Each structure stands twice: as C-alpha cells, then as structure tokens.
C-alpha cells in the first residue's frame, strides 16, 4: 500500500489551479491517480496504480486508470517512462510542454527528471543534418542513483 503521508499537497493544489485555469475537469479519480503517482518515490506502473486506486475506489477497472493517465499526460502533469512502461509526476507540472531527460535507477526504480533545452536542441540539429524532423523524444538513461551507489560503497 502506498503511504499518502508526506504527499506534496502543494503539487496537488498546483494542478487543481491549472485545471481551473484551463477549464478542464480534475475528477476525483484523476486527482487520486496523480496523488498515488506523487506518493511513490519510484515510477509506478498502471497495474500498481490500479491496485492502489482500488483501496479507495473498489469499482476501479483498468480503463479507469488509463483514462486518468491519458488526461494527466495530456495536461503535462506526469511523464511516461517508456523503457519501464511506468509513470512519474512532472518535476515542474507547468504549462509548457517539454522534453525531459530521465535518469532511471535500476536498483530502486527512482527516476530523476532533468530538463535541458540545449540537449534537445543538439539532437534536433543532428537530425536536421539528415533532413530528419523530430516530432518526439524519449531520452532515458539507466544506471544507479546516488543513494544506491553510496549504500553499495558502505
Ligand atoms: Zn516534466
Ligand atoms: Zn537507486
């Protein structure tokens, strides 16, 4: 079970405000799925989210979760981790769409989101040399995080 203690209520408030400003509805299920994603330090799979959602909404089915995830992705509140087929909250949750570079720890599944426009610009430039137009990026690096690395050293 996911602990909801220590959840960043500020972040939830922020997306509520953004939804109001955009005139889109943050239903209780959408909000709950976002809270569950935020509550977990690691990336969550749709299956894990469904299991946790069932605790408060026993009638929840896979489409319930997928619809909520689609909404949250569309609004830019979360990111999909393609290589592990899981989801994390966006570190900025802000209005503008962005490409992020994800650092994924293979030991604890913690995900760090980095945003570096110069990296994306470089990739775009390199593709343009081949007359290629990029529509989407998936930039994910696998490895070991700082806390896992220091645990192993001890
Ligand atoms: Zn982001
Ligand atoms: Zn780790």
Automatic annotation (TrEMBL):
Query: What is the species of this protein?
Result: Vibrio aquaticus
Which NCBIfam families does the record associate with it?
Answer: PRK11639.1 (NF008646)
| Subunit field text | Homodimer.
- Provide the binding site for Zn(2+): 105, 108, 145, 148
Tell me the SUPFAM superfamilies matching this sequence. Winged helix' DNA-binding domain
Q: Which free-text remark accompanies the cofactor?
A: Binds 1 zinc ion per subunit. Binds 1 Mn(2+) or Fe(2+) ion per subunit.
Query: What GO biological process terms are annotated to this protein in UniProt?
Result: negative regulation of DNA-templated transcription; regulation of secondary metabolite biosynthetic process
Which family is it part of? Answer: Belongs to the Fur family.
Keywords on this record?
A: Cytoplasm, DNA-binding, Iron, Metal-binding, Repressor, Transcription, Transcription regulation, Zinc
**What protein name is recorded for this chain?**
Ferric uptake regulation protein
- What residues bind Fe cation, as annotated? 98, 137
* Gene3D superfamilies documented for this protein: 3.30.1490.190, Winged helix-like DNA-binding domain superfamily/Winged helix DNA-binding domain (1.10.10.10)
Which molecular-function annotation in GO is an example for this chain?
DNA-binding transcription factor activity
Kindly name one Pfam family recorded for this protein: FUR
Tell me where it resides.
Cytoplasm
Query: Which cofactors must be present for this protein to function?
Result: Zn(2+); Mn(2+); Fe(2+)
**GO CC list:** cytosol
Under InterPro entries, the record lists: FUR (IPR002481), Fur_C (IPR043135), WH-like_DNA-bd_sf (IPR036388), WH_DNA-bd_sf (IPR036390)
